[in-house]
User: What shape does this take?
Amino acid sequence: MDQRTSEKTLLVFNCHEAWIYQLRALGLPLDIVVGLDGRHTEGWDHQMRPIPPNARLVPLSQAFSNPTPYYCIITHNIADLMQIKHRPEPRLLVIHSTIEGRCLEEQSTVDPASMRQTLRTYLTLTRGHAVAVSPLKGRSWGFSEDIISFCVEPGDYPPYRGELACGLRICNFITSRRRILMWDFQERAFAGLPVTLVGHNPGLPGVRAAESWDHLKAHLQSHRFYIHTADPNLEDGYNMATVEAMAAGMPVLSNSHAGSPVEHGVSGFLSDDPQELNGYARMLLADQDLAVRMGRAAQACALRRFPVEAFRRKFLRSIEIARARMSLMSVIDQP
Assistant: This one.
């Protein structure tokens, strides 16, 4: 039987393959919309993740001609919401960035307060529900009621070795995000040290994305430590790549951040002093056994703080909230 005739098929706008791939934990059929504007690839980026099980890729026109209504439509920005404004299905907005960071990255002159109010008004009128991937991002947009963090599956990663005396950072489109990522700080902190940079960065010569998820996991398995830097006012003290590195058993080096999952001196090192962070990096580069021990602590933290079951339970609950709101609107609209 075609599982997309199921009453619980979700329509999901593609935004970021690594995040979308998490939705496999829900156990529901997925129609993933591809061919969207503003993406670095027209379809699904197989270099980042394989297509989730029980999912298919569809253009928006095919999704809208689907004879069975979707159980819920998952969107990621105002443009997605506008695309489905005439659809009758429940809609869920997932907030992935701070409003300040997004305005900075897009060089927008729109007043953040105005954007915040416009989104809240629109979701109220359409009975949509918003969730955020972190408390910082929820507060930024004014939606702090429902927070659903990333999740990691421990079985996804091979045993960590850290035999390569080299740091690692996975990051896309750095040129437009330098301030958000505190890139000048990273360059000072790791000056003179070997660091592998992986990701889609057309403006940076010699920097390439991983060939596949297996290739990415090989980087996580072999490198000595992972790097994450970000402005605490614009971005979290971690992202999906950081959580993935911790789940793979890597220690993390970062600037200080109230929301960081890294415990200083246990699962990595935190410092706002670039010279001090450089010293910690040199310590790990010289001591593979130390990196392995700290990596075990990082892995335990990732599995404790970002469990699959919590993601599944919270996301399914949020879908039901979106459905309840849409049902209420249908009742109100009845003559």
